[in-house]
Amino acid sequence: MEMAEAFLSNGIETTLLHRSELPMSRLERDTRQAAKDALVCHGVTFVPMSIVRELRADSTGKICEVVANTGSCKTDLVVIAIGVKPNTGLARGVGIRESSHGGILTDQRQVTGIDTIFAAGDCCAVKNLVNNKWMYIPLATTASKQGWVAGENAAGGSAVFKGVIRALAVKVFDLEIAQVGLSSKEAEDTGFSVVTESITGNSKIGFMPGNARVHVTLVADKKSERVLGANVYGENGAVLRANTLGVAIQQKLTIDELAQLDLIYSPPFAPLWDPILIAANQTNKRLRSTLR
Ligand SMILES: Cc1cc2nc3c(=O)[nH]c(=O)nc-3n(C[C@H](O)[C@H](O)[C@H](O)COP(=O)(O)OP(=O)(O)OC[C@H]3O[C@@H](n4cnc5c(N)ncnc54)[C@H](O)[C@@H]3O)c2cc1C
Q: pLDDT for 157-170, tens place per residue?
């Protein structure tokens, strides 16, 4: 999606073929719809439910056409963005264990099953601290901490890396999108019974220059009332609000504790009722109504 923005900004007509109805399958539906709307309203042709069957080349060997189940498309350039898989053949060759989701398994010191071999980064699985499951989350935020710990321990130290909640962001033209923690589907798939609520608030006091709408979706566990995940989208700094929610998730705050956070109110920076607090209060209400 970021490449689509780069192409469009350089006057290049861009078509995005996607195998789902909406982009970014791990996000909540309204966030995915917002991402698609941002693409389309800036001029990207979005083709949903599209499975690419063939890339055709001209007589010089240059790609000239993409053939999909939804039709074909003449092109000068193709960017393939279909995710990544760790290449762990080297480790597997010496009997090092891997997660069923992909990636080398290590302990908290980044030691593999062989105690003289350390692993870190995109070749590794990582423990998700929200549901305590191994996942494959290839991000620089994870790789850099694992690398630090592996390096320190290889030099005789005793550093520990416990895991991640998964915190990521993407920019689609003017729209900032962030996800922290589990999606509602991931939470349900790992045994949580969830309640999900979405709100839209202001990033600053309404009359301040630069005020923008911020959309927050919270996912909470009905039983423990813990915050499990969140999506945030909007313009002008929406993404950085997700870091507060990430801390709440990592520290296992309940939705009520999130609603009680003493967040800044100051007209140029934030409204009295920050979108995070509004989202927490609305999720709390929904939680109470489902428990009745
Ligand atoms: C387009 C793009 C955007 C991204 N944006 C973000 C972002 O915004 N935020 C974020 O957190 N993450 C982002 N990531 C993910 C992030 O880049 C990776 O998670 C991170 O770089 C992983 O670090 P690493 O050291 O494990 O692997 P790498 O950075 O891939 O480094 C591995 C190195 O090992 C070398 N190598 C491979 N095989 C061998 C071999 N046999 N012998 C010697 N050397 C070898 C490779 O050449 C490479 O230099 C992005 C990734 C991509 C592709």
A: 999 999 999 999 99
